[in-house]
Structure prediction request, 382 residues.
Amino acid sequence: MTTTTTTTSSPDLHNAPEQKYEVTPLELFFDLVFVFAVSQLSDTLQEHLSWRGMLETLVLLVAVFTVWFTTSWAATAIPVAQSRTRWMMLAVMLLGLFMNAAVATSFSTSGWAFIVPMLLIQLGRTVWLIVNATEAAFRDHFFRNLLWLLATTPLWIVGATMSSEARLLWWGVAATIDLTGRWLTHPIPGRRLYSEHIGFDGGHMLERCRLFLLIALGETVFSTGTAIADAPIMWMTVITGTAALAGTVALWALGFGRVDRLTVRYVEETGDPIRATRLAGNALTVMVAGLITVAVANKEVITHPNERMSVAVALLLFGGPVLFLLAEGWYLWAVPHIWPRLRLIGSAALVLVGFAAWLAPSSIALIVAAVTLVALAIVDQP
Prediction:
């Protein structure tokens, strides 16, 4: 994640005009590589449905999403209309394809296939930004970003040389540092960050985040459809498939309803679009994690509708929507400064119904979760 650094002695930056432009076909084409990534993450979690599997998926999600977000931010700061940006995105797209293809085996066979393209993207794109940024404040931030990357690169490399058990520790530390740097905008001692009134198309970057949220929602639909196709044709398949889709539609309505309209209006009016979109990326990381867990839970329940829920499936089925709602609520509180009462109530309700449905068959739990989400979506409508 990127932001800008300036001081009060740089009025030229504060007066920089904001340029607005639409999302381009190349950016949509670029996103297709990350449609594949979200699918890979979902499949990986389903194949390793355990505490360790959840942690491995989280580490990989942080790395993959950081690549997508920072590249998309770069293509907003230096528009895709410029040929240098188009070539940069195509290069990231090529390396990202190989990185995402290695998601499934990154913790089992060799981690090199994942981290080599990932590090090439992160380091190469950051150097590219330092060279091509038009504002001194941008170049300063990207230089600090590079320092953070150089600090974690040895951790990723050492982790690739370790056994799969030790790799999780090394890569977990590296991912945590990378995520912290992105959330805090890569600070270094003695430097204070300012991003107000700097020319940046916040609306464009917000739209890129909204499109990635659709990618994650699409994975829940894809997983539901795959599970229905693989299940025997019977009433239980119809019931669980309908409940899974209803829950997904409710999450879509919660993500693109009243909150979405408030966010779009705020970003259009704020004097600090960089902060607004930077925090949107932070919230989106957690929301996507929640949607991946929902996708896996839906598939598990449709496949095994009459079995009692395991701890893992219960956490995915009810914890995923809770992550989604809490992340969305945090963004409402942190950016447009709206108290997210419905998101907090909804999260508490999901926890309670999750405990209540603990002894029921997984199909009943899925229906209860879907009904809760649909009720929240209805209440959330203006």
Residues 11-184 form one domain. Residues 273-303 form the longest helix (31 residues). The chain has two domains: 11-184, 202-380. DSSP finds 14 helices and no strands in the chain.
